[in-house]
Specification:
- The structure is a single chain.
- Helix content is about 25%, strand content about 25%.
- It is an alpha+beta fold.
- The protein folds into two domains: about 90 residues, no CATH class; about 260 residues, Rossmann fold (3-Layer(aba) Sandwich), CATH 3.40.50.
- The strands form four sheets. Strands 1, 2, 3, 4, 5, 6 and 7 form a seven-stranded antiparallel beta sheet that branches.
- Strand 14, helix 6 and strand 15 form a beta-alpha-beta unit.
- The longest helix is centred in the middle third of the chain and has 22 residues.
- The radius of gyration is 24 Å and the shape is globular.
- About 0% of the residues have low confidence.
């Protein structure tokens, strides 16, 4: 966060790093807090001023079932008598921000300033036409156990979020989009095999396969990858005819000849045939997905190869919430962070999958989930430039 203010007729700009934390206070009220630390003066600090970082605190209203207007304070002891209610704020629109406004907070040579200028359309970006990509297709295969009584709600949420996300990706890149969804009463191994067998991607196409459901491994299994539990009912016997290894999907898609294959499994990888559910809620801040189209193109149009990843290592379980699986939520979060204008490092698939695994692991720590065990995903990434 950048804070600009005047003090003794001098104009100051401070950059403050923030971290978020959720919890419950001594009155039993849930809160979410942004904590500022490491304040750095961007402007010259001749007077040797110090800046106490601000805190932003939201409290959950059990009556309205919503988060109330936040409070702010610079009191590091967090004495409630020093809280100040935020009465007004203005949401910024990149389309209306001009260069003079950015220069209020940033120096002309800062990387963030240059990124924000590009995001706000104040510099020449990647103006190549997307119409040329219409002959390429984005194939999205979603397998979701939406009828399961324990994890079905979270699976359905992930299905909706993933569909919406990658429809928009295809639209932004000017790609044809086709989806194949196996869910509900149609959820079975036969349906999955029929779907994969019917898939005929072209040599420049993208195939993304995402499984969201229960997973397990045989007691004597040596393969690191989990088996997808494809039973339409949890009362049915689990056999080779009602399950399928994620690595089998990898082999089938490799033989289809698409330019880019992405295979993800959000499921357990343990001998116990359950996907544990936690009631912990994950607060998602409202964020506009201001993605850099050039980074999006680099990921989807300028990459060739195969990605295989799952939510848990052998012997581990994966966790699901009503808001979705920790791995699926983390995958979308990692991708958005990578393609952001403000991401100054190289944008590539290895970074996204690595970050997905780290974010999902963090969400399963006691800090965020008191009843979770740690889940450590696994990955195989073999992707090069087109």
């Amino acid at each position: 966060m950048r804070i600009a203010y005047n003090y003794n007729n001098a104009y100051n700009v401070v950059n403050v790093t923030y971290s978020s934390r959720n919890g419950t206070n001594s009155q039993g009220i849930k809160y979410s807090m942004l904590t500022g630390y490491n304040p750095v003066f961007i402007t010259e600090n001749k007077a040797g001023l110090r800046y106490n970082p601000d805190y932003l605190i939201w409290f959950f209203n059990n009556t309205t079932q919503n988060w109330d207007t936040p409070y702010t304070t610079d009191d590091s002891l967090l004495n409630p008598t020093n809280y100040v209610l935020v009465t007004t704020y203005r949401k910024l629109d990149p389309k209306t921000i001009n260069d003079a406004y950015l220069r209020t907070y940033f120096g002309s040579n800062e990387s963030q300033y240059l990124s924000l200028k590009k995001m706000c359309g104040l510099t020449a970006g990647d103006n190549s036409s997307v119409a040329e990509n219409k002959n390429y297709k984005f194939h999205l295969v979603l397998i979701a156990n939406t009828f399961d009584p324990s994890i079905g709600g979270g699976c359905n949420t992930d299905k909706i979020n993933i569909r919406n996300e990658f429809r928009q990706v295809a639209d932004a890149l000017g790609l044809s989009f086709q989806e194949y969804i196996v869910e509900g009463a149609a959820f079975s191994k036969i349906s999955v095999l029929n779907t994969l067998n019917s898939l005929m991607p072209g040599p420049n196409d993208i195939v993304m396969f995402i499984y969201r459901g229960h997973g397990f491994r045989w007691k004597d299994q040596t393969d690191d990858w989990p088996r997808m539990d494809l039973r339409p009912s949890s009362y049915a016997d689990i056999t080779i005819n009602s399950s399928m290894n994620l690595s089998e999907v990898y082999t089938m898609l490799q033989n289809k000849g698409a330019r880019l294959n992405i295979i993800l499994g959000d499921c357990c990888n343990s001998e116990v045939n359950i996907s544990p559910v936690t009631s912990n809620n994950y607060l998602t801040f409202q964020v506009d997905n201001n993605s850099d189209i050039s980074k999006l193109k680099n990921l989807f149009m300028n990459s060739r190869g195969t990605i295989l990843s799952s939510a848990a290592q052998k012997g581990e379980v994966s966790w699901s919430t009503p808001q979705g699986g920790l791995y699926s939520m983390s995958f979308l979060q990692a991708m958005r962070e990578e393609i952001s204008y403000l991401n100054s490092v190289d944008c590539n698939w290895n970074n996204i999958i690595t970050k997905t695994i780290l974010l999902a692991r963090s969400k399963s720590t006691p800090t965020f989930c008191s009843n979770c065990t740690l889940q450590n995903g696994i990955k195989y990434v073999s992707v090069g430039k087109q």
